Amino acid sequence: MKYERALIAVAIIVFILVLSYAVALGAMGAALPPPDLRELAKNYLKLTINPWARNLTVMSPEAVTAIVWDFRGLDTFFETAVLYLAIIGTVAIYRGIRASRRAVESEEGSGMSPIAKSVTKITLPMVLAVAIAIALHGHLTPGGGFQGGSTAAVIMLLVLVVFSLQFSMRIGITKGSMLALRSTGLLGVAVTSVLVLILGLLIGYQAFIFQNQPKAYAPIGMPAALDGMLISGTLILFNIFECLAVAAGLTLTFILVLTHEEEIRSAMKGDKHE
Amino acid sequence: MSSDLPIVTYLTGIVVISLFVNMGISLYGIFAKPSLIKKLIALTILSDTANVFAILVGYRRWPPGSIVRPPVLTELPPTPEKIAKFASTAVDPLPQALVLTAIVIGLAVIIFLAVVIMQVYRTYGTTDVRLISRLRGERR
Amino acid sequence: MEVLALTLMAIVALLSTLATYLAITERDLLTAVIYSALQSTAYAIIFYLLMAPDIVLVYIPVAVGLYPAVFIVLIKKSERYEGG
């Protein structure tokens, strides 16, 4: 039985090695990998930080973050909306299920052994610091809002599992507080996307949604550098708020998923909670 | 550079064909395996392989004399010579931005599907699709 | 040097195919989740060799941290062995 699986795995690898010889003879047509980039890619690379093309640039040396939040900002806006809908769907499935007061205040189920708790206590501030650093440096180095938010969500999941869900609810990591943090983050993203538009309407200039730097016919924008340090306009605000929203949203999902089965079954049968 | 063109094409062909085989095996897993959780695992493998394909499209051959670099400009403040050198040695940044969006959307869908599978188990008592179809909607 | 980088990418791609095959044909679902995490690590190495550091920073927490956690909670609350 085991020899059968090993034989099939070896056969698959031999098949791949033989079929790629056909690719090497030219079966895929064009040259693989291509010898040079497309013109569109070269345009994006030349325009990410270019003080001589001030009307077209983003003033951020990180091309991927510039594309995500400035050149193709509306894609990211709708992707945030899709993540929001998935989390709201999870909250809707778990509606009406709350941990009973007796379970939250009891001492049983107090988590894993002291070794695991001590190690988690040491690594929690380190991982949170790394996650916030990844989010804040998103416009200078590889990083950004999603990267920092996912890293923070991993360490919060570890806290929920090691210290037990009841203890986490006692110290304040509850469904309500995570929903509040997520709503703050999403509100920040929405306000930042129309910030320059509102400023333009107040002062009297023309502006458009998701504007970052001043353009040819809309001469108002966010500052690209603050006191000599590069902040790339709205990119740093987007990264901060998106990190907060993603970390809080994923922690909320795990709080709901880790609920005990007895409480869910009793809520499904219709028992009242004390 | 054209002297090792067959070797470079062969190695890239190995990567591309093995990703195609990954897609084929995970599609087989979605269709043929009866457990809902195994279907979910195969779905994550399928979506991750599609993302690797998109990033592979943005790769390029090494320019003569230097290595290929990620699309981040590391020497500030910029001068026109540095920008021109950057545009001739970096990979394509556009597929990376689109794949970033795709990974987050895949995460949202998989987490929601996992919650729905938990609810299916609570309602029907099993995660085997053949047994669920035989029940025809009766609760456990 | 380019041939060395591409050889490494080819070896890791073959390793990912092996891990995918083992994950799909395994009847113990917990072992299948471990094989799937091994395949995600191979994909993270491929992303790094394709010069995409932004994607590596998203992919490692999501595919090696969050997906196995969700799957293990799901397996704990339902069945561990695939029937049939």
Radius of gyration of chain B (Å):
22 Å
Largest sheet of chain C: none
Give me the Rg of chain C, rounded.
Answer: 15 Å
**What sort of overall outline of chain B do the alpha carbons produce when their principal axes are compared?**
elongated
What is the number of E strands of chain C?
Answer: 0
| Quaternary class | heterotrimer
Number of domains of chain C: 1
Number of domains of chain B: 1
Distance between the termini of chain B: 67 Å
Helix content of chain B: over 70%
How many separate helices of chain B?
5
Output mean pLDDT of chain B. Answer: 91
Low-confidence stretches of chain C: none
Mean pLDDT of chain C: 94
Q: SSE order of chain B in H/E notation? A: HHHHH
Q: Strand pairing plus helix content of chain B: what structural class?
A: mainly alpha
What do you see in this structure?
The complex is a heterotrimer of chains A (274), B (140) and C (84). Chain A has a two-stranded antiparallel sheet with strand order 1-2. Chain A has twelve helices and two strands. The longest helix of chain A has 26 residues. Chain B has one domain. Chain B starts with a helix and ends in a 5-residue tail after the last helix. By secondary structure, chain C is mainly alpha-helical. In chain C, helix 1 packs antiparallel against helix 2 and helix 2 packs antiparallel against helix 3. Classes of the chains: A mainly alpha (274), B mainly alpha (140), C mainly alpha (84). Chains in contact: A-B, A-C, B-C. At the A-B interface, helix 1, helix 2, helix 3, helix 4 and helix 11 of A face helix 1, helix 3 and helix 4 of B.
TL;DR?
The complex is a heterotrimer of chains A (274), B (140) and C (84). With 274 residues, chain A is mainly alpha-helical.
Give keywords.
heterotrimer; A: 274 residues; mainly alpha; two-stranded antiparallel ribbon; 12 helices; 2 strands; C: 84 residues; 3 helices; flat
